[in-house]
Amino acid sequence: MERINTKKLYKETVVKDSLFQTLKQEILNDPANRETINLIKSYDVEEDMAVLMMIEIAQLNDDKDLDYLGGFS
Known about the structure:
Keywords: Plasmid
Strand content: under 5%
Largest sheet: none
Radius of gyration: 16 Å
Low-confidence stretches: none
Structural class: mainly alpha
Number of strands: 0
Order of helices and strands: HHH
Distance between the termini: 46 Å
Mean pLDDT: 85
């Protein structure tokens, strides 16, 4: 069984959390994004989850290789 490098795992977690918090603040500081976040939160979704949903949607929109709608996007 492979030994887990907890120090490395901790550093990766801290870096990812720091990046998320920075991106979250940028999203929340934009009035249009703030409205979208508030709309998502109105469906009983926590703020962090709403931000993650917006990030996921943005990534899907940026990915030109994914064409789930067969050209109707």
